[in-house]
Amino acid sequence: MPRIFALLTTLLLLTACGAQTLEGPPVPLGDFKLGHNVVVASKMQMGPVSRAATEEEWTASMTKAIGDRFGRYDGEQLYHLGVSVEAFMLAPPGVPVVYTPKSVLIVKATLWDDTDGRKLNEVAHQIAVLETTSGESVLVGSGWGRNKQKQLDGLSFNAAKAIETWLLEGQEKYGWFGPDERVMPAEDETNEPVLQSPS
Questions:
Q1: Strand spans (E) along 16-162
Q2: Which residue ranges form the domains of the chain, and what is each CATH number?
């Protein structure tokens, strides 16, 4: 956990730009269809410079973001996603130019194949996401222009998108969502948060 907070502190001062939209068709994921959408936040840690957010707020926001993104898939095979909210920082108002904190979220994701009930990744995959920033929030920090709910929802959106990218990688490397899918071995997971900047 100390390494997670070190990463949060570093990322808090970074910026990322991009649009948050689900327009257009989803990226191809073979036979994927979302089954259970399980989000937990019971062990989450709040960064040292952050607005407070409850377990219930994070669970609701992440569950909606995952449902919105992956509910669009209509494959013939059910897969279940389990996501754990590990740590977060929700940027408070900062001092323009001198101190403009950005929000950060770290989650772990696990994928199950419903057919035989097995996990497709032996070790939960960790992802760190930054919030999407506007030109204004780059200068003054999102804590001035966005309320807590907007920050929560923006980070959840980006986390769901990063999970989608991870599923695409699993599809390419391990044949996920097809007839020859393989389990991702523990040695292929670094167990360090993988930074996903919104694009």
A1: 32-40, 45-46, 77-89, 104-113, 118-119, 125-130
A2: 2-14+31-196 (3.40.50)
Contact criterion met (CB below 8 Å) for 102 and 136? no
CA of 53: how far to CAs of 59, 80, 94, 136, in Å? 10, 26, 18, 24
Q: Give the span between the Cα atoms of 170 and 162, in whole angstroms.
A: 12
**In the chain, what percentage of residues exceed pLDDT 90?**
61
Which H or E run contains 168?
A: helix 148-174
pLDDT bin (cut points 50, 70, 90) of residue 195 is low
Rounded CA-CA distance 158/143 in Å is 18
Cα-based angle 68, 72, 77 (whole degrees, multiple of 5):
120
Nearest to 166 by CA among 70, 86, 102: 70
| Distance in angstroms (rounded) separating the CA atoms of residues 197 and 78 | 28
**Can you give the pLDDT at residue 24?**
80
**Model pLDDT, residue 98:** 45
pLDDT in tens, 79-90: 999 999 999 999
